[in-house]
Amino acid sequence: MSFISNEEIKGTSTMNMAPMIDFLFLMLMFFACLAISRVTTKDTEIDLVNASPNTDIVLSDATSEIKVVNISISEEGEYKWVTEIRDYIMNTPDAIAQELNLQYEKGILPSDRLNTQVLLKIDRNATWEPILKAIFAIRDAGFEVHPVYLPDEID
Q1: Which residue range(s) make up the domain with 111?
Q2: Environment class of residue 136 by beta-carbon count within 10 Å: exposed (0-12), middle (13-18) or buried (19+)?
């Protein structure tokens, strides 16, 4: 006969599940946040056009009334309205949208805003912030924007 029962000698063979449940809950929250952020930041309507330096960019056929506007973004995030005569420095993306609207109201651009294609020529070393600001400002003004990059020249 023993003073200690067999149940107390064996001990309990249960496992504490609380830390595992906490870990699984944290993993579920992490992947839910990741899925939501990927959906909200992904824009599938932005396509880059590869422009050769020796050729002109033609995005439509000759029978349609399409006006092409060239905007460049430098490495420092500076905006320029590029014309055949000279380049005009634009201080903000809103200034680009205002100039587009002004030219639309004056009748310089086609009456259908979708017939104006804005080519956004981006420096390869430019940061994403000025690029996205310009894209959203131009789209908010109701014009079609096409980000363009020039490939590295082959030696």
Answers
A1: 49-149
A2: middle
